[in-house]
Inverse folding.
């Protein structure tokens, strides 16, 4: 089964391709890393934005489409950057991480709790929609560590992994623990049914 994934984020594409492959689901994503249509992410939640992107994509490709909206919510910042995670600094991942460290300067480790949250939306051209949301709790490191992953991964520490960051963990460990993998696990039964229908 082929499923259109409405994302140009290479990190998200890699992670979801690896999660989908064992189900016999092949993701296709925008060629050239550019969506052929504009979708304004005007929702006030990750779920609202994911549904918006999936429904627009499904109508454009006349079939099933998957969309992801995810980000980081930091307790000491009142949930920021939240839905603005990718655009928070206007300067990409490095700028976002630098801003996060500035905003948390002087905040003690025990007050640096944060949640990585992921919403995955599945939609078809007829208007059928499904939304799942999952999260992974950790805390923000005092300095970036590791070169794996993307986004805020070098700053996101997991207590259950000895406070190693997602940037330090092997991809297979992140695939088991991350907010995205947890959301995808909720979506698996539906994807299996869709794949069986198309056989």
């Amino acid at each position: 089964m082929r499923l259109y994934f409405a994302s140009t984020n290479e990190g998200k594409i890699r992670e979801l391709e690896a999660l989908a492959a064992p189900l016999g689901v092949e993701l296709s994503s925008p060629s050239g890393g550019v969506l052929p249509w504009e979708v304004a992410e005007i929702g006030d939640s990750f779920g609202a934005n994911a549904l918006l992107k999936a429904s627009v994509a499904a109508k454009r490709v006349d079939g099933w489409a998957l969309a992801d909206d995810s980000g980081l919510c930091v307790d000491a910042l009142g949930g920021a950057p939240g839905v603005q995670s990718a655009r928070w600094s206007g300067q990409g991942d490095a700028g976002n991480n630098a801003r996060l460290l500035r905003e948390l300067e002087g905040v003690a480790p025990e007050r640096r709790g944060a949640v990585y949250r992921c919403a995955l939306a599945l939609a078809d051209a007829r208007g059928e929609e499904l939304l799942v949301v999952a999260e992974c709790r950790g805390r923000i490191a005092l300095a970036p560590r590791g070169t794996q992953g993307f986004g805020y991964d070098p700053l996101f520490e997991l207590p259950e992994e000895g406070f190693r960051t997602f940037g330090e963990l092997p991809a297979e460990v992140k695939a088991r623990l991350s907010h995205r993998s947890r959301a995808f696990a909720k979506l698996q039964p539906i994807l299996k049914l869709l794949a069986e229908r198309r056989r």
